[in-house]
Amino acid sequence: MSTTGFDELAEAPPPMTSRLEGELLEISMGPQHPSTHGVFRMNVALEGEVVRKLKPVFGYLHRNHEKIGENTSYLGSMPYTDRLDYFCSMTNNWAYALSVETLAGIEVPERAEYLRVILAELTRLQNHTSLLGFLLSDMGAWGTPLMYAFREREKILDLFESLSGSRMMCDYMRFGGCRVDAAPDWMERAKKVVADFPRFLDEFEKLIVSNEILIARTQEVGKLSAELAVNAGITGPMLRASGVNYDLRKVDGYGFYPRFKFRVPLGDHGDCYDRLMMRVLELRESLAILKQAFAQVQPGPVMNPKVKIRAFKPPAGEAYGRIEGPKGELGFYLISDGSANPYRYRVRPPSFINLTVLEDLCLGHTVADVMVILGSIDIVMGEVDR
Amino acid sequence: MIGAGVLQGMAVTMRNFVGSYFEKDRLTTVQYPEERSPLPENYRNFPFLVYDNDPEAGLRCVACKICEKECPPQCILIVKSEDKKPDYMGKPQFYPRVFDIDISVCMSCQICVEVCPFEAIKMDKVFELSRRERFDALLMQKDELAKSNEYYHGIHPTEAAGVDANLAAAAAKKKPA
Question: pLDDT category, A16, cuts 50, 70, 90?
């Protein structure tokens, strides 16, 4: 057997490793894996390269968020919500503010509601943009798409910074409105960012959508059926990619969303490609909402003057406030006993609940696909572990 | 045709690469220590104490401890004085004997600024604060925290003008009584 041709190799006796045939190889992926989007570990049992079992292990980033929330004032929890999903601090703020407003029956001025819609949609833009970049990075398109995505995200973060003072930890919304008003020149800048965004989006679509490698890596990979998605409580773009029409902006109609005309994109395969395209389509709808919001917003107060932020004590009771975050249904459940701290403070994190179907999606796929599937779920460990 | 999608993507990359030499919005990186992008006016990171005229006697803080109580990560320590000293308006007030902020704990939420009824604590813009010492180098004491009203006007001009107007209005209201 000196110079073996392929034919001879096929007839050759099986190599030594074949006595492990049928046995599973257990490996631990993470927690310091570059594509796990944070400190996240998966115990995977492999047969060859095919995943037979997968057990997610998390909790490395646990920071006691809910217990801290029960021991600080209602106002004091607001900056902590920024740190849940650190890509979308504005929507986290909104969800928390909404639940406190439901609890205490606080009215929000009109301009503040518009600002919230604008900021939430800008958050959606930057979250989906960076997700697309990360997802491509997971597939091996190192750097380039991620840098393009981050270049666009940076423009939105600059807007956040000049409005709230911080790029990511905005801490901008308050129960009863927003902390500071947006100056007219801020509005102009935001309009310009939104007007320039389609150029990037068209370019980005050209970069990825018809790429054969991307199609081969994502289509028919990690299919999520509508039944499983509904039963597992999946929400957000992932649920809609499976063809279930459920968008809290339409269902709940919170904020001023009923005043805007927008469509809810739906997928029909529920695979990674649909989940990816769902984000691209949602970006277009977000841009439509933003354009309408800029046209409708009027000057006015941004804070309800009756609300006392300091030493805030809502009446005893309970409330659940939820919004359609970029990753899914983000909810805050608060029980108040009438004191200055919530008696119970519970977060319903979309990325944690969306992560629960990871094993179902990955079974039968190869290790390389696990990364793509995980990327398409769109998780942020700050929110998963809390 | 197989490969057309890849080529299309390559064309986009090429356009971005060539464009980065000609278009400002395709090349956005800044060579940080030498070049700096300007900070927006609203930028905030750590709190400081505002004084008028004199750093010791002119501190606006009256040691009411509201910020200490409201601070979510509890990074403020205030020890109230036993005696009263005339403040910048001549009215006898308590003053902070100790005012420490551990800015390694501070999370820049600016709740202390929002709750302060005396416009005494404001957010600074200094961010190059790394230290070689391990323990108390980032524990800012009263003398390090005290910065003049002029400095405040320099970093947040719009906000500071509003604050001055409010204070002047409050002083004018009190005068006749």
Answer: low
Residue A6 has pLDDT above 70, yes or no: no
A211 touching B, CB under 8 A? yes
Of B12, B15, B123, the CB nearest to A165: B123
Chain A hits for B107, Cβ within 8 Å: 79, 169
Residue to test with chain B: of A151, A204, A312, most B Cβ within 10 A: A151
- State how far the Cα of A102 lies from the Cα of A117, in Å rounded to an integer: 18
Mutate to test the interface with A, among B6, B12, B114 (most CBs of A within 10 A): B12
In this complex, the residue of B5, B12, B43 whose CB is nearest that of residue A203 is B12
Task: Inspect the interface and report whether the beta carbons of A158 and B25 lie closer than 8 Å.
Answer: no
Q: What is the rounded CA–CA span in Å between residue A140 and residue A326?
A: 24
> What global pTM score does this model have?
0.86
CB contact under 8 A, A309 and B11: no
ipTM rounded to 2 decimals = 0.83
Cβ of A230 under 8 Å from any chain B Cβ? no
Task: List, for residues B113-147, the tens digit of each pLDDT value.
Answer: 888 888 888 888 888 888 888 877 888 888 888 88
